[in-house]
Write a structure and sequence with these properties.
The structure holds 2 protein chains of 2 kinds.
Chain A: H1 37-43, H2 67-79, H3 103-108, H4 111-114, H5 126-143, E1 147-149, H6 155-172, E2 181-185, H7 191-198, E3 202-206, H8 217-223, E4 228-234, H9 246-255, E5 259-263, E6 283-287, E7 304-308, E8 320-324, E9 327-331, H10 348-384, E10 391-392, E11 406-407, H11 409-415, H12 419-426, E12 446-447, H13 457-476, H14 478-482, H15 495-499, H16 508-515
Parallel strand pairs in A: 2-3, 2-4, 4-5, 5-6
Antiparallel strand pairs in A: 1-7, 6-7, 8-9, 10-11, 11-12
Chain B: E1 3-9, H1 15-18, H2 27-35, H3 42-53, E2 60-64, H4 71-76, E3 82-83, H5 94-107, E4 111-116, H6 118-128, E5 134-138, H7 152-163, E6 168-177, H8 179-183, E7 189-199, H9 215-228, E8 235-238, H10 242-250, E9 261-264, E10 267-270, H11 275-282, E11 287-292, E12 299-301, H12 310-316, E13 321-324, H13 327-331, E14 339-340, H14 345-351, E15 353-360, E16 363-369
Parallel strand pairs in B: 1-2, 1-4, 2-3, 4-5, 8-11, 11-13, 12-14, 13-15
Antiparallel strand pairs in B: 6-7, 8-9, 9-10, 15-16
Helix pairs in contact in B: 3-7, 5-6, 9-10, 11-12
The chains are: A alpha/beta, B alpha/beta.
Chain lengths: ~525, ~375
Amino acid sequence: MVNQQPRKYHAHVWDEPIILEMGRKGERGISIPKVEKEIEKAVKEYKSYVPSKMLRKKRPKLPEISQPHVLRHYLRLSQQTLGMSLNIDIGMGTCTMKYSPIINEELVGLPQFTETHPFQDERTVQGILEIIHKFARIMCEISGMAEFSFQPGGGAHGIFTNACMIRKYHEIKGELDDRNEIITTLFSHPADAACPATAGFKIISLHPDPETGLPDIEALKTAVSKNTAGLMITNPEDTGIFNPKIDEFVNIIHEAGGLCAYDQANSNALFGIARARDAGFDMCHFNIHKAFSSPHGSMGPACGAVGVSNELTEFLPVPIVTFQDSVYHLDYDRPNSIGKVREFFGNIETIVRAYSWVIGMGAEGLKKVSETSVINTNYLIKKMSNIPGVTMAYPKQNIRLDQVRFSLEKLKKDSGVGTEDIARRMIDFGIQEYFTSHHPWVVPEPFLPEPCETYSKKDIDYWVSIIKYVCDEAYANPEIARTAPHNQSTSKINQGVLNDPNNWAMTWRAHVRKNKRPTHK
Amino acid sequence: MKKKLGLIVNPIAGMGGSVGLKGTDGEKILEKAKKLGAIPKAPNRAIEALKEISSIKDTIDLITYPHDMGENEVKACNFDPIVIGSIQEDYTTSTDTRNAARDMLRTKVDLILFVGGDGTARDIYEAIGDKLPVLGVPAGVKIHSGVFAINPKNAGILTVMYLQERASLIEAEVMDIDEEAFRHNRVSAKLFGYLKIPNFPQMVQDTKAGSIPSEAAAMIDIAWEVVDNMRDDHIYIIGPGSTTKSIMKQLRLKYTLLGVDIIYRKKLIENDVNENKILKLIDGKKAKIVVTVIGGQGYVFGRGNQQISAEVIKNVGKENIIVVATENKIVSLNGKPLLVDTGNDEIDDVLKGYIRVVTGFMRSIVYKVA
């Protein structure tokens, strides 16, 4: 490997206070002129317009700050943020941090989109309904499903929606009392366990086979019973390994009377290659904000699109956009629907971006996305193979698809430097802190890169060179990684303090109450 | 105030291993080991751990025992220790370990770092119970207890983290096997109790996964699941261990941590029963066995719960066995299968394959038994 020298980097350090600690009494951003007498006379007492129950008794304790100080404050905070467009985000495995074409931002900024209201009559928003309807047809083609809903506001929300549809299906059949168990795997996304649990199901997780990293058919057979309501599974799982027996899994569940839901958050390697319905799945969900290029992070806006087979369309959330007599309609008349899962139609700006992206790509382009993503992953594996202290989990499996799970167990044993230390040290080079992996850590000291199709060979080479640099450094001088970061906006944070509920305050008001702090300086 | 670290080295730990003696419990065996050319290992293991601690040397008081029980090792690493107690140079026994532990308790150290094996852990446990947190540097032949770090280096790192208040405490088993039986290729392991050890959970705060519940909370979760599904027509045989006994706590019943307790319709029938008593109590009745995974090796039957014998298992039936363990415990097996050793091959074979392990409220993991 040609060793690339890390580029020099130092983050902004502003030691910026919280905005609620700033300003002083009476300070103002804008001076609003007093109401003119004529207006006052015509309008009368302003309070009479507000229902008395809604009137505040006291003034809100908002910060009082001048405009330049507000601007300065937020610019400083933005400078302290290592955003996706500033750096190489390969480390955020299972998040599919791909480049989001900027032109799509112009589309969601168009007044035809921004100046509409969700309460408008459907005849006046035909253009938006057309996009939703046409994108649903594209999603059906990609997955093999019969109908889609874009209402869920995120991946886990999509999985929850699927769990609710499984529940409704058994309820209508009169079998819900007995069918109260959902089977998943430990390498599926944790939401595949947490969401059905929230929907009231018992959860049975299959532990991966230590050799193959995949769940075993015999383990599945042990889990299946007359109580099985369904299977909710990710494939490829969060190891990048594709389960080649997935159709057998589906058959076993179907024979037991359960439904199968495919978590396709890891679908970036499957466009035009494998479809959920073709493997027998009854339903699936996609993260539109991941594989379909709509930007994500900071918790949104996102869309967990859910698709179902023909037999299950009656259970989808309302409304569904239909097309009849050359007009698009919002169909609420679906008696077996699980109801609404989010207000209005969901985060439609996500759909506008994704629709534009898919149309731009075309069928061939989408397939190329997946092929490039797989090539990038396996190129990265090859580049990583000689880094001291790093091993790939389940080495007997040759190929990874969208991502790959590595372990720093050896590095930790040799030097005491673990994956959290390396993650913190990476950011000293202006590289996003990588994602270790979802819990539980079946692979010790894990990390999970996903070099999806928008990263160049040069990006991958540079990212690998930084991993190599920090691992070499960990052997030579472990203290540097253990005490990292050193060039960042913040120093190492004491996790013990963070994890102690006694230190938590979810709002400023709670913080003031808990720590008896004054509200203003 | 300066933190106090206690160090106890069992200088003879591990000497039997290299010469094939499976341990050094007892004077004769030690003599034999020495004659066979065994060299002390523990001092070097102690020094390896101490090197990691030297970075905070000036911020702690290091309290240790004389000569090879800590003083020599500590001075070799340029620490300036407070040496307490007295021993006979070049000749130490388990009594010295126990005395050292008691003295450390009196001195109110924050943590005892000890270098040894299962026997050393047992001596400390028997001397002071779980009144002080401890951490083991593995140096013995037998390491069945869960109180040890994976290697001396990590023991040192974990010690620093704990003294800097960056690590929490969890319970870990003190197990030991009968060396004499072991030398005759019989394994007879016993669970002696639990000590508190520092734990740095693999806990990156991940916004998607949320925080990992503490082990104690996980055990309460497991207890709820078992209690909620208890059936009035079954006798429940509750095996040893803190995970199974969380069920007894949930039901507010008196229990024996290391023994087998019997309950029926959520009422206590008898504490600490032996095999014959169990067989008598379940004779002609429906019963369920609740057991947990004991120790890092992954045993479900045959270690520390021998009262629940092959005969008992045969009478109860495989379908009536409830295995409980926290997710953390299952994951820390690193994919190694759960083990059974009932002394009856036929029963062992029946138990092999995949089983459901209850890991929380309405949660289970399907895991392999081999």
